[in-house]
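TA notes, week 10

Several of you asked for a full example with nothing omitted. So below is the full record: structure tokens for the whole chain, then the designed sequence directly under it. When grading your own attempts, check the secondary structure regions first.
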């Protein structure tokens, strides 16, 4: 962010005890700053904290705090404006693409930008890629811009996320590579009548329910990226889920890597199991 951290600017405005409670981590999506964990004890001070951010970090126009965690089928949060412009829509730039979205109506995590880059770097020339659960289009856009893939298909059930994704594809001039579909992957994928070289499954909560579906539509020697939330002592559970689905589908698999792609609490990670199938 800037040379001086937020606590420095709040020194004269809060007591030492309050200062200690100020969260040192937050997300920045475009010109919106979001506190994921904002302590109840600072509720009366939230306005002054928000205004201090706006005064000292000029690229931030709105400050929000999460009041309800990601939930429901669309994996969206509830967010309260604590200072600045009354808006929740923004444009975020990452990996040479622009992603426009409403941070409350659409799931998006800026913390996944290096993971999106990692996947794009694995894509080989001329691959057909499927992104199940494509949201506002971040994965398809980053892959289309940063690889020599033939095409990227994206499927998303949240109509607002899908609408933003369509707009983002145009904004990034990626219409020649990306095809987007609105609906449930369980209904859309069978209708595509197509197999893919690579399938991404960025739905870490409950994604295992879709593994058999992914296995039906992966080419021989294709690669699946299966996301999960796991304690560091239980990474083996990702392979167990892959194994169970492969047994059901009568497929052989080989785990290539279990990549850590974000830490959510002490020793608790978002992981991606990359595995090949034949
Ligand atoms: N890939 C996006 C990203 O990284 O920004 C979004 C990931 S978010 C964790 C999971 C997404 O899956 C949500 O946008 C949700 O609406 C969508 N989703 C959940 N169940 C789905 C289903 N059965 N079919 C299609 N999309 C689904």
């Amino acid at each position: 962010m800037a040379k001086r951290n937020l606590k420095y600017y709040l020194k004269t405005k809060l007591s030492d005890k309050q200062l200690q409670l100020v969260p040192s981590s937050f997300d920045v999506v475009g010109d919106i700053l979001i506190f994921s964990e904002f302590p109840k004890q600072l509720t009366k001070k939230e306005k002054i904290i928000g205004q201090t951010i706006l005064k000292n970090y000029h690229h931030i126009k709105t400050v929000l705090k999460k009041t309800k965690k990601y939930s429901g089928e669309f994996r969206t949060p509830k967010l309260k404006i604590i200072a600045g412009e009354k808006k929740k829509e923004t444009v975020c730039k990452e990996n040479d693409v622009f992603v426009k979205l409403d941070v409350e109506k659409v799931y998006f995590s800026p913390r996944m930008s290096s993971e999106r880059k990692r996947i794009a770097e694995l894509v080989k020339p001329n691959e057909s890629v499927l992104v199940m659960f494509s949201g506002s289009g971040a994965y398809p856009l980053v892959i289309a811009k940063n690889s020599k893939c033939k095409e990227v298909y994206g499927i998303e059930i949240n109509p607002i996320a899908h609408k933003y994704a369509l707009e983002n594809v145009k904004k990034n001039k990626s219409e020649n590579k990306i095809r987007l579909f609105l609906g449930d992957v369980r209904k859309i994928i069978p209708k595509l009548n197509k197999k893919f070289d690579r399938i991404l499954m960025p739905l870490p909560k409950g994604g295992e329910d879709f593994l058999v579906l992914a296995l039906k539509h992966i080419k021989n020697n294709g690669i699946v990226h299966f996301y999960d939330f796991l304690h560091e002592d239980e990474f083996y559970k990702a392979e167990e889920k892959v194994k169970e689905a492969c047994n059901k589908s009568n497929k052989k698999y080989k785990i290539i890597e279990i990549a850590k792609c974000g830490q959510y609490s002490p020793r608790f990670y978002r992981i991606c199991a990359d595995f090949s199938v034949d």
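The pocket of S-adenosylmethionine is lined by residues 73-75, 107-108, 112, 133-135, 138-139, 155-158, 161, 184-186, 202-203 (CB under 6 Å). Use that as a sanity check on your answer.
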